[in-house]
Amino acid sequence: MRDKVFCILIICTLCFYKLTAQGLNPPIQNFSAVDYDAASQNWDIAIDKDGIIYSANNQGLLSYDGQRWELFPLETGATIRSVYPYKGKIFTGSYREFGYWERDVNGKMHYRSVMSSLGNYPVLSEEFWEILAFDDAIYFRSFGAVYKYEKDSIKPIRRLVANKIAVYKNKLLVAVSQRGLYFLSDDGVLEPLPNQEVLEGKTVLDVMVQGDTLLAGTRDSLYKFDGETFSVYPDYQLNNAIKEYEFNHIMQIAENEVVIGTVKNGIIHYNLKNHKFRVYNRNRGLQNNTVLGMAKKDGKIWLGLDNGIDKMDLDSPIHFFTDESGELGAVYDLTFYNGKLFMASNTGVYTFNNAGDLVIIEGSQGHTWNLEVLDNKLYANHNTGLYTIDNGNFLPVEKRTGSFQITPLPGNNQYLIGTYTGISSYMPAVRGMQQMDSIDFPVKKIVFEDEDVIWAVHPYDGAYRIRLKNNDKESPQVKEVNNIEGLRNSKVDVVTINNNIGILHKNHWYRYNVFRDSLENFRELDAFKNHRLIFNENDKYWFVNLENNSLVYTDFIDVKISIAFKELDQRLVKGNEKMLQVNDSVYYVTLNDGFASINLEKMLREKNQKFVARPILRGIADKNRDYPLNNTPDIPFKSSREITIRAALPASDAAMLHYELEGSSGMGGEVRNGLIKLQNLPHGDYRLKLFALGPQDDIAGSANYSFSINPPWYLSNLMKLVYVFLFLGLIGFLYWFNQLKLNKHQWLLEQKFEEEHRERINEMEKERLRNEITLKRKELANSTMMAAKKNEVLMDIQGELNKDRDKFSNQFRLKHLMNKINTAIKNKDEWQVFETNFNELHEDFFKDLLVKYPKLTNKDLKLCSYLKMNLTSKEIAPLMGISVRGVEVHRYRLRKKMDLDKEENLTNFLIKNF
User: Any residues with CB less than 8 A from the CB of 192 and at least 6 apart, and which?
Assistant: First the structure.
């Protein structure tokens, strides 16, 4: 058994090396003209010390800071042919023009031409194709001359047809067209390299310096100079490839590795030690086969192409097989069988023929979910059933319904098959297939808890725990089907981890407790929430992060590696990721257009060697202006409604760029496209922190920047001073106003007091007058009553005298006495006194009465006055010197004169109306 496994591993390893030689490519990131929004042609490419990419584009200088592309055109609109970063300046050359670009304090790029330093020196119709720094001077090369720029002045060194300049043995080396290589002094003197007869009549296009050794390339061959003699490079296969593909550039990327850019077939990755090479062209992931420029930094190669810009990582632990034709589709599983790699995809089952071409197994067209090698047979779970693959034939086993998975039943020569309609048991010896009872739902995955218990995972509706009845005489039958409470109506995943059943439900891991028949928290997997386990063998665990679809490897001891999403080129088959272990170091993972090879050993070795660039602040601006980056800007409040911050993260192994804003309003998040939009920030001081996250989501680089937002005009210092004065003025005004109110209140109180005093005096006066009137009324009433009594007595005496009239002897004396009594009764003086007193009490009574009733006599007025005093007829009679009946008659006549109604009381009428 051990020998068999050893042979299988050898076959798989050999197959892996064959695949690597034929179809696995390193990560290649393509940037098209649509991505960077400029012309397709890029004549040269360079990288500065910070990792910023610069490209000489047909439309100007193209820059990529890891977040966004920027284009800086020349005012003339000329094509830029060469670019060279040096000490913070970006030198460029174009048609009859060269100079440099530099950023100002606001982060804006500006161009300065240095052509004016040439004076009247005639510049012919030259284009400057190459720029080089040497001895703190900058050399510009055209096809007609070489120029030197130093200390803000430029001078021509020599007119000659030069195809290349380089530094060799601390001297400037020039490739002269069809004449070979020469040292060029500052005086314009040419000194040829020795023994270069082999280059006679050939034009050197590029050279690579390696110590004292030179590698020089012409259009059709590579040559080597050992310090004394030139010779054709001793690798005829390489030279044949160069002749066929047409040499253009050469660049060293490691001690024994070079990259050769060609005109017709991409690049050649060549090993100087073992003389092996691989070609990467349009069929292998490049956008274009014509390589016009090359640059490298931190193990990454950048290619300026005739159509686009590409980034390659030749030393990456991840390589890809990509089906460019689209025929393969999304790969759902893969396995090795009889020395071949088979791939199950949504379009069928594929393998590679002897020529390394991808071919489909005839008859397998359609969705294939799973491949499994059991008892040296290859099974395929297909959309239309279960099949075996033998000698390129796709042979049906069961076509009743589609199937998801096939797995052996422990301790039994049977297989369990998860199908679209349930679970079937299959006995390969007799080719017997039997549907399990009571399972009438699709089963996408079968996981064994032990020999008698399985878990059946529904594609959409939880997982079921099934106990099998298993003996030697009967086929497995379902004894119990139980969907655990909490798993219903949701997608779940079930795995076995260290003899435990782990269940991923709603992105949280649970462990099944067999004794309680319930789920409990799987504490060992708390750090892997939102992660689904896709591989688990030999204490090696691979998870897929469900949030960003990245891969995570761990041994649960001290190793945890995250493979960022962009490294997999956004190509994982989400929800159906599968992994195949090829050997101890190499794993294959399925992709939506092929598969990826991951070298775990290399990844672990390079884990701490990843380079993460430091974030760079490119600019800060509001709606009206840009602000300098060399100090803390004060942004007016009215302009701070929208602040745009431009940030850069030069191309590196960083996973992403994050920011945090500290201040009056804190916030944070991921930087996208190099722009941070801050809106409606309150005034105050702020500090912006930029974090470059490494491959393991650790902070690998940071940068800080401070700025302030001035308060609004109504909160400025001047306005605060105004507010102080206004406040003091308000206090003074309130004090004055309060005093005014107090004075007014005091005046009102005085007025009120005076008014009350007057009222009291008036009331006292009225009371005095009322008392006086009352007294006078009483006096009038008393005097009247006394007069009435007197007259009544006199009238009684007169009556008595009249009775005994005949008894008096002296009739004259009696008459005289009777006259005196009549005079006393009708005394006018008493009436005048009464009238005067009555008028004092009832002023204008007689006047008003006469106005209304002018025909009233004095006697009528006298009766009215007595009635006004509410005297009875009996009381009035003596006062008027008449009888009571006379008073009644007089009253009747008075009513007639006043025309009063019979029911109207005369006394009440006079009292109320007069």
Answer: 179, 180, 181, 182, 183
Looking up tokens 């009249």, which residue turns up? 802
Alpha carbon 831 to chain centroid, angstroms = 114
Is 737 within 8 Å of 743 (Cβ atoms)? no
Rounded mean pLDDT, 632-649: 86
Q: CA-CA distances (angstroms) from residue 683 to 436, 536, 623, 659?
A: 71, 54, 16, 20
CA distance 245 to 290: 9
Angstrom distance (rounded) from CA 352 to CA 292? 34
Domain count, the chain: 2
DSSP state of 526: G
Environment class of 363 (CB within 10 Å of its CB; exposed 0-12, middle 13-18, buried 19+)? middle
Cα-trace Rg, the chain: 60
- Dump pLDDT digits (tens) for 318-373: 999 988 888 999 999 999 999 899 999 999 999 998 888 899 999 999 999 999 99
pTM of the model: 0.75
CA-closest candidate to residue 66, choices 655, 879, 911? 655
- The CATH number that applies at residue 677 is 2.60.40.10
Q: Structure tokens of 261?
A: 């850019």
In 3-state terms, what secondary structure has residue 866? helix
Angle between helix axes 845-852 and 858-868 (nearest 10 degrees) is: 120
Q: Copy the structure tokens of residue 133.
A: 């720094």
As a whole number, the mean pLDDT across the chain is 86
Kindly tell me the burial class for residue 182, based on how many C-beta atoms sit within 10 Å of its own C-beta (0-12, 13-18, 19 or more): buried
Three-class DSSP labels, 2-41: HHHHHHHHHHHHHHHHHHHHHCCECCEEEECHHHHCCCCC
End-to-end CA distance of the chain: 147
Side-chain half-sphere exposure of 761, counting CA atoms within 13 A: 5
Is the residue at 4 inside a domain?
no
Cross-strand bridge partners of residue 503:
494, 510
For residue 816, with 0-12 CB atoms within 10 Å meaning exposed, 13-18 middle and 19 or more buried, which class applies?
Answer: exposed
CA pair distance 484, 229, nearest whole angstrom: 81
Residue 637 neighbours by CB under 8 Å, 6+ apart: 683, 709, 710, 711, 712, 713
Of 159, 191, 211, which closes a domain? Answer: 159
Residue 653 scores a pLDDT above 80: no
Sole residue written with tokens 């956008």? 287
Residue 96 within a domain: yes
Q: CA-CA distances (angstroms) from residue 794 to 578, 621, 817?
A: 151, 127, 11
Which among 715, 730, 763 is the end of a domain? 715
pLDDT, tens digit, 9 for 90 and up, residues 535-572:
998 889 999 988 878 899 998 887 888 887 666 767 89
Q: Could you tell me if residue 663 is inside a domain? A: yes
75 within some domain: yes
Range of the domain at 637: 616-715
Write out the two tokens for 865: 């006055």
What amino acid occupies position 390?
A: D
CATH number at residue 65: 2.130.10.10
- Rounded CA separation 520/526 (Å): 12
